[in-house]
Amino acid sequence: MSWFWFSIIALLCWSGSDFFSKIGCRDPKDKYSQFKMVMAVGLVMGLHAAYEIFVGGTEISWNVMLTYLPVSLLYIGSMTLGYVGLRYIELSISSPICNASGALVAIIAILSGTAEAMEAPQYLAIALACAGVIGLGFVEANEDDALRAARQEASNYKYAKSWLALALPVAYCILDAAGTFADDLVLETLNEDSANVAYELTFLAAGIVCFVYTVLVKKQPLVPKMEAPKYVGAIFETAGQFAYIYALAGGESALAAPIISSYCMASVLWSRLFLKEKLSWKHYTCILVTFAGILIMGIYDM
């Protein structure tokens, strides 16, 4: 299979992960939905790690686990905050904000002096992504309550204006950017396959901790009908990561990256079609500006 089809699979899987994670975590009454989501992802990633170790022959050791642990914790922490945020804000808004982490990575690299020389369009991409996210925040914070209620009527889910609603996807963006920046440094000393397995095993451990806390300590029930979307989302998340690796390994990363990076727009499409989320023209304008920045960064991601 060519890099192109792996890129398309990664795009569909990661947007599918967004979609089903939203369904699994959007109930505002379930204060433990984020931990249940971590349980689901941890289980699926743990199974995939077992396959990679016992069938694929990937080498893993405690040294690799500990070396990659800070990166794993940043990624897992960001995803957990993202799952919390899905209770408070539309997927159409949270996904573009979360995906702006690439622009933040570039800013960190520039400020730390580790960035390579960039071309003018890359600086424009960073500016667009940041401007789009800031614009989304401004639109959300200043939207009239009556207009908000009217446009949310079709989805049957009402999201109140709240600093927490915006803070959570922004926090995801920051932690994910920190994880990506640290990832680049750590992978200079580790094999990529071993690092990925270390990440998956750490996620499994996080899932076990969440199970003990949520089910055994807090006595929270696991209702199959409510939990099923979480596990579907977890499968899509793991499959997307698998396809992503093979897409970039195909030697056409300059073409694969922009395709994959556009998955947040697919997430917006699914949320509009199936979750009936409706945004204002101001929201969509900011989303398109953010997406333009992400797309340009993807084109220059070699």
How would you characterize the overall build of this protein?
The chain has one domain (3-299). The longest helix is centred in the last third of the chain and has 26 residues, at 192-217. Helix 2 (33-54) packs across helix 9. It is globular. The chain is built from 13 helices and no strands. By secondary structure, it is an all-alpha fold.
Give a short overview.
The chain has 302 residues and is mostly helical.
Q: Would you tell me the structural class of the helices and strands?
A: mainly alpha
Label the overall shape: globular
**What percent of residues are in strands?**
under 5%
SSE run: HHHHHHHHHHHHH
Indicate how many domains the architecture comprises.
1
State the low-pLDDT regions, or none: none
Query: Count of helical segments?
Result: 13
Mean pLDDT, rounded to whole units?
A: 87
Distance separating the two termini:
21 Å
Q: How many strands, which pairing sense, and closed or not: the largest β-sheet?
A: none
State the helicity in percent bands. Answer: over 70%
Write down how many β-strands occur, each being a DSSP E stretch of 2 or more residues: 0
Measured on Cα atoms, how large is the radius of gyration?
19 Å
Please render the helix and strand layout as text.
Layout: H1 3-25, H2 33-54, H3 62-85, H4 91-99, H5 101-112, H6 120-142, H7 145-151, H8 163-186, H9 192-217, H10 224-249, H11 253-261, H12 263-274, H13 281-299
Helix pairs in contact: 1-10, 1-11, 1-12, 2-3, 2-9, 2-10, 3-8, 3-9, 4-8, 4-12, 4-13, 5-6, 5-8, 6-13, 10-11, 11-13
